Amino acid sequence: METNQAGALRNAIGSALAQHQAGRLAEAAAAYRQILVVDAKNSDALHLLGVVQLQRGQFDAAIDLIGKAIAIDPAYASAFVNRSHALQGAGRYAEALADCDRVLAIKPDLADIHSNRGNALQGLHRYEEALASYDRELAVQPGHLGALYNRGNALQNLHRYAEALTSYDRALAVKPDFAEALYNRGVSLQSLERNEEALASYDHALAVKPDYIEALSNRGRVLQSAKRYTEALASHQKVLALRPEQVEDLVNCSRLHDLLGDTQMALAGARCAWGLQDSVLTRSNLFAILKKCRFSASNPEIEALAIRAMSEPWGRPEEAFDAMLSLVRLDKAVEACMKRASGAWPEKLSARELFPAGSLNAVAKCRPLLCLLESVPSRDLDLEKFLDAARRAVLDLCGDADGAPAMDEEGLVFCCALAKQCYINEYVYSCDDAESSRAQALRDRLLVRCAEGLPVPALWLTTVASYFPLHTLPAVEHTPGLPWPQAVAGLLLQQVSEPLAERQYRDGVPRLTGVNDRVSLLVRQQYEENPYPRWTRCTAQKKQLPFAEYLKQRFPRAAFAPPGNKRELDVLVAGCGTGLHPIRAAQTYAGARILAIDLSLSSLGYARRKTLELGIGNIDYAQADIMELASTKRSFDVIESVGVLHHMADPEAGWRELCALLRPGGFMRVGLYSEAARRDIVAARKWIAERKGAAGPQDIIKLRHELITVMAAGELASLASTADFFTTSECRDLLFHVHEQRFTLPRINKSLEALGLSLIGFQLPADTLSRYAERFPDDRSMTDMGNWDTFEHQNPQTFRAMYQFWMQKRI
What's the pLDDT tens digit per position in 117-142? Predict the structure, then answer.
């Protein structure tokens, strides 16, 4: 017969449970605790008090309490179930799964256990197994709402969106106003590009749950993809009204303001998002807005932000050149100097004429100018004319006597930045015989001082560095006068220490193959003399993606067979130049092992130095000729060769050699010059040939100077907007290359067919792709080469930067 105490406890448990079931959690918790005062080992009270904590979201407390109940009663099946819920809430999915498996051993027919087990498996990203658990649950309970809904989630995680949609629809048949199912149904529809249906599903979810932030946010994305920018903005703004710190919606608002032409609001939103969260997303968005800005008023905060974005950098620095130049031109002292220099050009003003009293120091205070000079080559003729004149003016300040001219710290910083710019653009500025003789005389005076152990004026050193790379002068780094000012030390790092490291890396580069082809030997010589391209800063490390995900993001409509689930990806970059291409690949592709080859040892030495500076360890550099690569017996999952094949004697033969190294089902990216897009380049090359222009550095500089005069008169004016015109190596590659072929789309298409390659898509700006989609709406995958040929004929500058396209090798 039951004792009085046992009966009293049972009644107390029943009373507390009634409070609990009525939703009065505080009263229930107090009652359970009162029972535990009397009977500290009452497993029911411990378990149910743990359930109260679970309902409150206090997962650790719930785990502890329910664990004590299980310790008292190891066969307490429902306690294991509830502890598994608490463990999932705490993100401890492996332990939750173990509890579900214990329940199955104790009481295999307990309701909901397979569904709960599926949830734990989803938390472990074991989606196929989770799917099997939900199906077991549904075999017993065909209308189980949770299993139907979570089954849809598992299918969505497996990218099986059509099947996920069916599962959500079955869940909604059970509960039509299930907001979460309506939302995820919208996600599946959006992934299937059924955007109008997705929008309707999000709207239904919001009718049920008006403050559903995720539905509002996704609704905005759908509207943006439909170019309904004003409605999309309103949707994201509703999110921010509910949750002002929602960074992704701030970013999307910023992008939408930009699309709507309100750059000021776009920039304000981007700054706000970055202020809340300094992340890759907010930095890249802020940079994307900044680079489009053309500033019309000074703002010290914006200047500081732009300088940081350019220097770290948050994007490709060269893309922000025009934005930074607009900041530079707001400086009255700089703008006045630019106007004076441009007005006198091609004559160069004296130091007194270019820099009236005090103006050199005023120019030196322009921080955007200093940042620009140290980051990227100038790509503006007016700025170039000023910098060219400034170099001559600083030479004037050095005088012809063997004195030690004084220069204050601000002026010296500007002179160092100018010398760095000259080194970056590879001394592309022209000078007449008189200026050249004076520069050589100053260099000789500096070397005499070095040889005699006498102090060298810092201004001499920086001025000589703006005419001659310091690493070509003996023992400059050991000149008396150390320690140098910080700016001069930075100049010595750029022009002495780094080139020395490059020579050491160059000597250590493995030679995978010989270089025997006549054209290959000529091309190698060009790039040994002028490594291409010289770059200073690379975008900081981004989040790496599995290769298939990268391609899907870039070509969302493309049909391609995804690569197998390889943990490592063998990548070949054929023609890697100075390393920017393989470095970006290493930063992008998860699990990539990269072999980067080039003909030029000088380029490879530069690439190796920059790679080590960035701490990247998964790139191997080697010298090799594409036509000899078969001898290496290597094969690759991905091969990239951009801007290379068109410099070969037989581009199609080189392409065949690369394709032979590509594994079945592998992917290839190629970049080739367009015949249509380079008509002005062909005209310029003809102009040069008529003058019997040679291709040595001084010949290039001289003829380039003459071209600027012709361009100013209106002929070949488009060259001024070509970025490659503004440095010696890039200008040589653009107009003086030893061998160049150009392609058409029919010629490319013929090669694709012959090589068994399927086009995935062209890499082009979003607005170009959008215009193509409007012109050819039936070509959803955007891979019809006939359409692209028509589009290019109608828009000849479409492939100005080259045809760049991805392909897959047919199996």
Answer: 999 999 999 999 999 999 999 998 99
pLDDT at position 1: 41
All structural domains of the chain, each given as residue ranges with its CATH number in brackets, are 4-221 (1.25.40.10), 292-326 (no CATH), 331-505 (no CATH), 512-678+742-811 (3.40.50.150), 679-735 (no CATH)
Residue among 538, 632, 519 at smallest CA distance from 578: 538
For residue 404, pLDDT over 60 is answered with no
H or E segment to which residue 392 belongs: helix 381-398
Global pTM value: 0.83
Mean pLDDT in the chain?
Answer: 91
With cut-offs at 50, 70 and 90, classify the pLDDT of residue 541. Answer: low
pLDDT tens figures, 30-62: 988 998 888 899 988 899 999 999 999 999 999
Q: Mind listing the pLDDT tens digit for each residue in 548-577?
A: 889 988 998 888 888 866 778 999 999 999
| Token pair in block for residue 726 | 């503004």
Nearest to 219 by CA among 242, 241, 203: 203
Residue of 131, 129, 138 lying closest to 164 (CA atoms): 131
Q: How many Å separate Cα 592 from the centre of its chain?
A: 16
Taking the C-alpha atoms of residue 117 and residue 114, their distance in angstroms, rounded to an integer, is 5
Tokens of 225: 């993809």
Torsion angle defined by CA atoms of residues 199, 200, 205 and 211, in that order, rounded to the nearest 10 degrees: 50
In angstroms, the Cα distances linking 157 to 85, 127, 154, 248, 717 are 21, 7, 5, 21, 53
Angstrom distance (rounded) from CA 766 to CA 754: 30
Residue listed under structure tokens 């003809």: 686
Are 60 and 25 spatial neighbours (Cβ–Cβ below 8 Å)?
Answer: no
Nearest to 799 by CA among 674, 670, 647, 644: 674
The C-alpha R_g of the chain, in whole angstroms, comes to 34
| Residues contacting residue 181 through CB under 8 Å, at least 6 positions apart | 149, 152, 168, 171, 172, 175
Which residue(s) pair with 668 in the sheet?
A: 639, 807
Cβ burial of 561 (10 Å; 0-12, 13-18, 19+) is middle
Q: Would the pLDDT of 482 be above 70?
A: no
d(CA 741, CA 276): 50
Q: How far apart are CA 99 and CA 79, in angstroms?
A: 9
